[in-house]
Design brief:
This is Gluconate 5-dehydrogenase. The structure is a single chain. The protein has a single domain, classed as NAD(P)-binding Rossmann-like Domain (Rossmann fold), CATH 3.40.50. Helix 4 packs parallel to helix 5. The chain has a seven-stranded parallel β-sheet with strand order 3-2-1-4-5-6-7, with helices on both faces. The protein is built from eight helices and seven strands, in the order E-H-E-H-E-H-E-H-E-H-E-H-H-H-E.
């Protein structure tokens, strides 16, 4: 019998992670590289990407790009495939939350949120799928949210896109899983990232959120490593179309 730990080994795999300059995207790059993958991080801030590359080493490269720029999609696909070959794994961690209330949502804020949070994951995946089909193996990991199923103040645009991510994930699974490509989503609870700075800057609010979990605390970046490696590896070979909530039981209460 093969060692079950080998199911999580990503040696020989190539991964692409969007939103890699900070937060959960940055953590995903570190986790995937530690499991043996060669990883290309994508974000708009070159200085942050360069620091990440320096920290992790030769198995990480990066591309400076706006993944919501659909006109540059073909160039982006070429760029992320250049360092190590076409990605076997795509992790869509890039996202935005304008925090505009329903009465204050602007067309620009709405369109920006939709473009980055849901259109970019679909079109980039669509562009990378042919190479995955050719190999008969691929992993797509989208980022859902507590707001996939819950309504938060100031989150109408963000929550709408994150609810859409759950269905997008199911539809991707239906379309591509027969080719050996699984599609799943991770739904983080409250983790310390740039998107949640306002939450963690208020100790009382952060404490209230922690109390609402079953575990009794907010997330730590390392809490994402296991679920990410699971969904990106052979360990999840018969799991597709699912949203895994990594929220300390917040949505269970």
């Amino acid at each position: 019998m093969a060692d079950p730990r080998s199911l999580f080994d990503l040696t020989g795999r190539v991964a692409c992670v969007t939103g890699a300059s900070s937060g959960l995207g940055r953590r995903a790059v570190i986790a995937l590289a530690s499991a043996g993958a060669r990883v290309v991080g994508v974000a708009r801030r070159e200085d942050a990407l360069q620091r990440l590359q320096n920290e992790v080493g030769k198995d990480v490269d990066y591309v400076v790009a706006d993944v919501a720029d659909r006109d540059a999609l073909s160039h982006l696909v070429e760029a992320v495939s250049a360092p190590f070959g076409a990605p076997d794994i795509i992790v869509h961690a890039a996202g935005i939350n304008t925090r505009q209330t329903a009465d204050d949502v602007t067309p620009e804020g709405w369109d920006q949120t939709v473009a980055l949070n849901i259109s970019a994951p679909f079109f980039l995946s669509q562009a990378l799928v042919p190479a995955m089909k050719a190999k008969g193996w691929g992993r797509i990991v989208n980022f859902a949210s507590l707001q996939t199923t819950r309504a938060f103040p100031g989150g109408i645009a963000y929550g709408t896109t994150k609810a859409g991510i759950a269905q997008l994930t199911r539809a991707m699974a239906e379309a591509w899983s027969t080719y050996g490509i699984t599609a799943n989503a991770i739904g983080p609870g409250f983790f310390p990232t740039e998107l949640t700075e306002a939450v963690f800057a208020d100790p009382n609010r952060a404490t209230r959120n922690a109390v609402q979990t079953c575990i009794g605390r907010n997330g730590r970046l390392e809490d994402m490593d296991g679920p990410m490696l699971f969904l990106c590896s052979d360990a999840s070979g018969y799991v597709t179309g699912q949203t895994l909530m990594v929220d300390g039981g917040f949505t269970a209460k």
